[in-house]
Amino acid sequence: MSSHPTTILRYVPSFSRILLISTLLRVALIGYSEWHDAHSVVKYTDVDYRVFSDAARFLLDPSPHNQAEGPLARYLNIGSPYTRATYRYTPLLAVLLTPNEWLHPSFGKFLFAGCDILAGLLMYELLVSVILPTSPRPDARTQAKDTKDSRAGEDMRQRLATFLVSLHLLSPLVFTISTRGSSESVLSLFVLATLYYALKGRWDLSAVFLGLSTHWKIYPFIYGVACLGVIGSTGSAAGRGWLGTVVNGRTIRFALVSAATFIALGVGMYAIWGQPFLEESYLYHLTRLDHRHNFSPYFYLVYLTYPSDPPTLEPVFWKRLLRSPLTSFVPQMTLALGTGLLFGRRREDLVFAWFVQTFVFVVFNKVCTSQYFLWYTLFLPLLIPQLSMSSRRAIAYGAVWIGTQALWLSEAYKLEFLGQNVFFGLWIRGLVYVVGNCWVLAGIMDAYGRNQSR
Amino acid sequence: MATLSSSISSQGFHFTVSTTISVPGTLDISHSRLHVVYDLDPHVYADLYELAQRPGYSSFLWGTSDLEKPVFAVPSNNSVLLLTADTSRLVAPANITLDVPLHARYGRPVASRTTDTFYRITLEKPLGFLTFDLHHSTGIPEPLGSYASLAGWPSNISAIISDATSADRLQVTIPVGVSDDLAWVDVGTAVVMLTMFFYLAHASLRTVKRLSRKTSTKTE
């Protein structure tokens, strides 16, 4: 943001100290989770962690009812993580968590916490080497100032970077998600690595990480669209017009490297684990129907129109149109990809472009849980230096973002745990969540780039 | 003779059936196994992976365990959950309590709010029985007759544990959706999402124009 209270920054500890505090906090919480889960029926550990751990165990323990089904499986005595019901992830995640079986059941939590810390390191490096130095440069007269001032400026930059990264590392949303055993931090690390190499201009490496990120979870493919414009706007492709900017030798190379990485990983996984890998990791997400309540207002529509046996076709055409998957998919993809093309013009805008793309993807998705918020809040520490808004406005946006969630959660509690019939009210609050978040996003867009020399 | 009593603590879509078996000192269970069977209405499901984390018993399930569908999208027949208590450290007389977490699926929506917008799920009371460890030729007691054909059902049943409580069945009440709401939900969801789509599209275009103007000004 344009006004940085330097007095606050004086009290910010060193980055190494923040890293140490963040690490110790996570280690303590993982230790606590072991004690808590052993003494309480209500577990600290996320249900998903049990899914990952079970999948890793099945992978290591093949049996006649638990076998990998790919063409190469006959040469490998290996089980299938998809023997575990509701495991809908890449087999790589189960492979990563195999030490849960032979080392310690909490290994995965330490891995996810470690990814948090590495992500913090990447953020800090990006802030001090790329993002903060692109703030308005001094003119020729001020360049003559002595080195003491430039050292002071560098010190302030490091403190600001530390402060911003600590917003992420010390965020309860972040450290509880990883220490409870959710794997979101692994994808966050891959996405940040993609961004890191993109901002450093190392597009081949960025493309590889984009392919890896998309293999892990499909949605990061949207970032590739923003990258095309940035790649095409530099070098010999610059000034060719929009189509020439997006389609040229360099962008084609980026797309091919990214696609090749994605396909190579997919082929490798299919070769070992076969059709269940395709069905559970990818195809399931294309046809899934999330009828249980979640932040997205689509849940109630899905519940009331859930296909029954025998299926009944809605006779009225406009109702069929309203309920069609395209009615949700088209706006979501148009915004997610369109904002990538609109804002992916300069490398300095990449953080903003990815933030907006992810935000709209989450808000317009047919299902949304709290973990999805991490997908775009990840970019906030990198985006804040490029935003210019008053403290009052920032507080208003924060209050609305948190308030709409609290409004929904209070009603969801009544439904799920008290058994009150609040389906309609919960749907209304889902709409309020969407409207509130869109207002916040529009405000952030309005605040972007006002303090930069462009 | 051992006796059994069950109760249910209900909280919305998640509830726990607690079954307490009183084993008298006169009963020698050193060569027996203690089982409790739960006949689950299609509205109710047990998460075997969750049960595996519970101490004091092992579990087996016949029927659908699909956690992700509403009741009208799963087979309409009941599922059967069998718990086998861990009696390795049991010294009679003693009480064993088995707490079983169960969950409710979303029910079939009702047509309108003029009808009851809740559904009462009725659960058959849990049935307890003992089996011999060693092979022992016995008949199948009548209450367990319908389960005998299930693959892996225990044999060598020695005795049914009588139920000490008076109430016949356990009940849980869940809210259900209202189909009449669809008129609002159909249009309301589409209108809001499309309005927000255009709102953000406009905000995006406004932002990119502003950013482009700044870039052009700098170039000039």
TrEMBL record, chain A:
Q: Which family does it belong to?
A: Belongs to the PIGM family.
- Which pathway or pathways does this protein act in? Glycolipid biosynthesis; glycosylphosphatidylinositol-anchor biosynthesis
Q: What class of enzyme is it?
A: transferase
Q: What is its EC number?
A: 2.4.1.-
Residue ranges of the TM segments? 12-32, 110-132, 160-178, 218-239, 251-273, 326-344, 351-374, 422-445
What membrane topology does this protein have? Multi-pass membrane protein
GO term, biological process aspect, one? GPI anchor biosynthetic process
Q: Which PANTHER family match?
A: GPI MANNOSYLTRANSFERASE 1 (PTHR12886:SF0), PIG-M MANNOSYLTRANSFERASE (PTHR12886)
Keyword terms of this UniProt record: Endoplasmic reticulum, Glycosyltransferase, GPI-anchor biosynthesis, Membrane, Transferase, Transmembrane, Transmembrane helix
Location (main, coarse) = endoplasmic reticulum
GO cellular component terms, semicolon-separated:
endoplasmic reticulum membrane; glycosylphosphatidylinositol-mannosyltransferase I complex
A Pfam entry, by short name: Mannosyl_trans
Which InterPro entries does the record cross-reference, listed alphabetically?
Answer: PIG-M
Domain of life the protein comes from = Eukaryota
* A GO MF label: GPI mannosyltransferase activity
Cellular localization per UniProt = Endoplasmic reticulum membrane
Q: What is this protein called?
A: GPI mannosyltransferase 1
What does this protein's UniProt record list under function? Mannosyltransferase involved in glycosylphosphatidylinositol-anchor biosynthesis. Transfers the first alpha-1,4-mannose to GlcN-acyl-PI during GPI precursor assembly. Required for cell wall integrity.
Automatic annotation (TrEMBL), chain B:
Write down a Pfam family by its short name.
Answer: PIG-X
Q: What is its main location?
A: endoplasmic reticulum
Q: Which SMART domains match?
A: PIG-X
**Which BP terms from GO are recorded?**
GPI anchor biosynthetic process
Kindly state which keywords UniProt assigns to this record, in alphabetical order: Endoplasmic reticulum, Glycoprotein, GPI-anchor biosynthesis, Membrane, Transmembrane, Transmembrane helix
- The signal peptide annotation in the UniProt record is none
Listed name of the protein? Protein PBN1
Known role: Required for proper folding and/or the stability of a subset of proteins in the endoplasmic reticulum. Component of glycosylphosphatidylinositol-mannosyltransferase 1 which transfers the first of the 4 mannoses in the GPI-anchor precursors during GPI-anchor biosynthesis. Probably acts by stabilizing the mannosyltransferase GPI14.
A Gene Ontology term for the protein's cellular component: endoplasmic reticulum membrane
The pathway entry for this protein reads as:
Glycolipid biosynthesis; glycosylphosphatidylinositol-anchor biosynthesis
Lineage of the organism = Eukaryota, Fungi, Dikarya, Basidiomycota, Agaricomycotina
Query: Membrane topology for this entry?
Result: Single-pass membrane protein
UniProt lists the family membership as follows: Belongs to the PIGX family.
Tell me which InterPro entries the record gives: PIG-X/PBN1, PIGX
Chain ranges passing through the membrane: 182-205
Q: Where in the cell is it found?
A: Endoplasmic reticulum membrane
